[in-house]
Design goal:
- The structure is a single chain.
- The protein is an alpha/beta fold and 236 residues long.
- The chain is built from eleven helices and five strands; from the N terminus they run αβαβααβαβααβαααα.
- A five-stranded parallel β-sheet has the order 2-3-4-1-5, sandwiched between helices.
- Helix 1 packs across helix 2, helix 3 packs parallel to helix 4 and helix 8 crosses helix 9.
- The relative contact order is 0.14.
């Protein structure tokens, strides 16, 4: 997360187009939220869009609406409206498209045109595409070569390793003011094996383990409690 945040900071100060990828549940949205909480309005105005399955014209209208504008009629006029609004921004204008792997080819092409059209305005317009790993493959297609060449910041969030999973569980437990031994060492290994190290899946399964431990009156989460909880998730 620290590495990813450092790269996104570079995007704000020096980059033009960023691409953040990783499997579902790995923490892409959490990283974006960390970025947004660290930015000041004077430094950067942000627009967050996650309805990326919209057709390109609808997506551009959504951006204009999020910028506080009433979208004009016609995609070309909305396009100009966004650029005009970017030119009036006090700091950098950052457009964040979460679930960007759902963007269609027309939308990606329009975003490239938006970036290239913004070269003569200031402060600069920047775009961050965040999505699942399939986004990398989409960007490598020939029709998106020009857009890919504009990517100045790339980062791929990966699942936690087994030691990182154990540290993650210990940290979350300690934040709740509970002894880290609440989860046995063998259980932490099992949590990693069953979830693949994805933080969201670890959270959900760990909570299920705590509920099961409460239900059976267990003082800690051992292997038996874990297997009972995991069975409800149909993970076995």
């Amino acid at each position: 997360m620290k590495e990813g945040l450092a790269r996104l900071d570079f995007l704000i100060t020096m980059g033009e187009l960023g691409m953040l990828t990783g499997p579902s549940g790995v923490g892409k949205s959490a990283l974006i939220k960390r970025l947004l909480t660290a930015l000041t309005p004077q430094q950067c105005e942000t627009v967050y869009c996650h309805l990326t399955q919209l057709p390109s014209s609808g997506l551009l209208k959504l951006v204009a609406t999020r910028l506080g504008e009433t979208p004009r009629r016609g995609k070309d006029r909305v396009f100009e409206q966004i650029l005009e609004r970017a030119g009036r921004t006090e700091g950098t204008l950052l457009l964040i498209f979460d679930e960007a792997h759902l963007l269609n080819s027309e939308a990606l092409t329009d975003l490239r045109l938006l970036l290239s059209s913004a070269l003569n305005i200031g402060p600069p317009l920047k775009i961050l595409l965040a999505g699942q790993d399939v986004l990398r493959g989409t960007m490598k297609r020939a029709q998106h070569a020009d857009l890919l060449n504009r990517v100045s910041v790339r980062y791929q969030l990966r699942p936690l390793s087994k030691p990182q999973t154990a540290q993650y569980v210990d940290f979350q437990v300690s934040q709740a003011g509970v002894d880290a031994k609440l989860f046995g060492e063998e259980v932490k290994d099992l949590l990693h094996d069953f979830t693949g190290g994805l933080p969201r899946a670890i959270n959900n399964l760990a909570i299920a383990c705590l509920l099961q431990a409460t239900a059976v009156g267990a003082a800690r989460v051992d292997e038996e409690v874990f297997r009972q909880a995991a069975a409800e998730f149909q993970l076995q």
